[in-house]
Please model this.
Amino acid sequence: MHATPVPPPLVRHARAIALTALIALIVLGLAWELWLAPTGSGTLALKVLPLVFCLAGLLRHRMATYRWLALLLWLYVTEGLVRATSEGGLGQQLAIVEVALCLVLFGACGVYIRRRLRSAPEGGDKDGDKAEATA
Model:
């Protein structure tokens, strides 16, 4: 039985920021579509479902989840930009907050991925899978 190495502080901070931003994005999406500025019957609240699935991977330090989330976020950025320019009032403000949260989350994912790859053992592969098993 070997001890699991503790991730470097920057990796831990990036993970904490990513988790906080992801949870905030989920809460924002639900509140937006169900209570604050709903656009119909509330079915647009389902848009947060892919984000909910990412929570488990972030909690488990899954490198693949951070990578996929960094790509998935651009759909939410696009939605936020479209709604920020087409809606007014509270909907527009919520769209701007959505874009800001996406950018913070993207930056945290980028820092997490880069630092994890840099701190991977020399024998680890380029995808960080070996480091993933030990982190």
